[in-house]
Amino acid sequence: MENPGPRTSQNFPVVGARIRVNSLPLVTVKWTSKKLELDLDVAESPIIFKNQLWSLTGVAPERQKLLLRGVQIKDDTDWSTVKNLQEGAQFMMLGTAGELPKAPVEKPVFVEDLSKNQATQIMGSAPPGLVNLENTCYLNATLQCLRSVHELQSALQADGKSFSGNAVTNIAVSLRELYKQLENPATVDAIPPVVFLTNFRTAYPQFAQQDNRGHYAQQDAEEAWNQLLTAISSSFGSNGKSPVTRYMGIELEHETTCDDPAAAAAGEMATTTETTDLRLTCHISNTTNNVHQSLAEGMTQHLEKASAALGREAKYTVQSKIKRLPKYLTVHFARFFWRADIKQRVKIRRNVAYPSELDMYQYCTKDLQSKLSEARNHARVHADLAADEGCNPSGVYELCAVLTHIGASSDSGHYIGWVKKEKDDWHKFDDEKVSPVKEAEVLKNSGSSADGHIAYLLLYRAKDVEAKPAPSSSDA
Fold first, then answer.
1. Confidence band for 338, pLDDT divided at 50, 70 and 90
2. SMART domains this protein is in (predicted)?
3. Residue in 382, 414, 427, 453 annotated catalytic
């Protein structure tokens, strides 16, 4: 939903008067003696379409009876189940309009509509946005959220590489130059990230896909996020000096045990492996209500595989623990899954609450827990953690950025970045439109709303530890 249409004030409670074209460019709705021609996006729920009709007719959704060849379209009807839904389909709407709200005496002024200079005069300085270059909101939101990793910007600035024939290196170079523009106090208007986008699509052609009309397709922000971090890490080589791994790398320890008692008797022992990842994924079930619940469930996995000791398939339990926490922790909500019947990735809207402060202590190995306790109980950092640049010495995080999505599918809809400024103050990055918001508004994006933004990626930053001197020998 790249072009959400006109906004409304509190005195005019309607949504945008036009829905973006998807797979059904034009339909007709007959109401009284009028015929309305408008676009229908079947990726969105019917309530969105009904709100559109509300804005055009004054008939509130709860007073509408929408029919297609005698079949009633309800608020939660799945468009894929509606027969006779095709190009030029003719709907009939029954319902009486209430009195249309009168325009306010003074025309409302929205923060998003102010020029950069006007917004600065009224509300103080706001960082510049990024111009949407045709369905690039997924990338704009990613770039704004990752600006919260200040050490990443510093490493790019200090790297000093120039443009070359290496496409991946060129991503890092163009990102450095783009961030330099965004950080420049003289930058007033939104920046079109043309050079960066060109290099990104050159290195990863999947982000340059076009539809049959020649328009660039919407992409998945989580995939862009991961690909971008991989590119930056690769540009620093394989010498272990990547700022991505240093400040965002999570080290995990996995213990795999066979559930069959006969395995131990046959000599099969538990095995331990280690992995490094740049995110923790929260899978969402019918009982998932918050991040902690999802993380706890994700740390225990069950699988079935061949057992060499038993000579047959057996069930196993994999128990995971974190052995290294980075300064910046990325949490990914696995909200999209493939529906074979409609051949599309669809979205899980379940409400999953996430906190402004996240404590990861319970998910760590016993060894790491003992080291974290130094900062947690005595406000001093353990020597091993002090030597690990880019780690989190306490295990406690504060929320610093959120990437949200609105829409039914990852390859449609719209992405927005929300970035913490200080304390309770945040900035909402809706492409070139940047507006101030409070943290309470950010935390509301936890899910279930049919037409609202829902958190897709969370970025947490380690809370500062106020160091105390180590105890003297007499205090020991």
1. confident
2. UBQ
3. 414
